[in-house]
Amino acid sequence: MANKNYPHPVLNKFTDDFIHDQARFDILISQKTEGHNYKLICNVNLNEDNLEQLLKNDEVTFVVKLVCTATRYRAVFEFNELQKTIILPSSDVEKKIELSTFIISKTTIESYSSQAFNPDYEDATFHIFAGDILAEGSEYSMDVNKKIDPLTKVPSIFTIVSNSDKNSPPIDVQSIGNKIVITLNSSNFESYKKLKQLQNQYNQLAALTSSIFITPAMVMILDDVRQELSCLNDYDSIKEYIEEHETEHRWFKVINMKLKDLEIDLYDPENISDSSFVLAQKLLGDPLSNGLEFFEELFSTQDEEEEV
Asked: Beta-strand (E) ranges in the chain?
C-alpha cells in the first residue's frame, strides 16, 4: 500500500494525506472456526467526520477483499456496519488467505474534501468516481486451520446456473476451474429455484434435490475421470495425471480425498469395482435414500393438516 499513488487524498497510515491525530481508519479482523466454515470477524475503527457522514449517506462502503492463491478463490465483501461477520466455507480455501481492507466510494462525489486533510491541500476539493478508494486499512495473511475437513460437504464443489438460450439442453455439466457447473435451461432452473425455496419447510427435500441434479453430474464426472485414467498405462502416468488435476482443479482434489476416505484408490483404477453411480451415491451421502424420505415427510404433513 505504501507505494500506491492516488489522484486524491487517501486515509492510511503510510502517507500524510490526512492529519493522523484527527483521522483514523482500520478494520481489525480475527478468525474463528465454526463447524465446517471459517468466521472472519471484522471490527471497524473509523474516526473521520467527512467519511462518517458519507457512510451515513450510503455514499461509501467498507470493503474486505479476500484472495486464496492455493484455490484461486477471490471475493469482495461490502458492508456498512461497524461490525461484520464473514462466513467462509472451508471448501473454498486452503493453506493461506490474504485480506485487504478499504473504504470505497459507491457513487460519484463532486467535491470531496475534509477538515482532516493535510494543510498543504488548503481548500482543495476532488472529484471522486464510484469505486475509488478513499481509505486503506490493514492487510492480513491468515493460515487456514487444517482441522476443518473441507470434504464433508462434497456438494459444495457444484454450482447450478441458468442458461437463457431457448435451444439449450435441459441439463449440461462442465468442470470449470474449481467448480463443477450444472447448467439448466430456463424452465428447469425455475423449478430448481422453487425446490430450493421449499427446503426450509421439508428437511429431506435438499437430499432429493441433490439426487435429481447433483448425482447425475457426479456420475458423469466420475465416468470421465475413470475413462481418462483407463487410457494411462503405468503408475507414473497416473500419478502425474492425479497430481496435475489436484493442482488445477479444486473439485478433483475434493473428490479424490473423499474417495481416499472411502478407501477407494484412483492410483489403481482397475481395482475399483463399484460403478460410477454407486460411487456417486457414496460420495454424496446416499441422497437417493434420504431424498425418498421427503415423500414420507410430505404425506405425514398432509395427514396432519387433514386431521386438523
From this structure: 24-34, 37-47, 60-68, 73-79, 83-89, 96-105, 109-112, 126-128, 133-143, 158-163, 171-176, 179-185
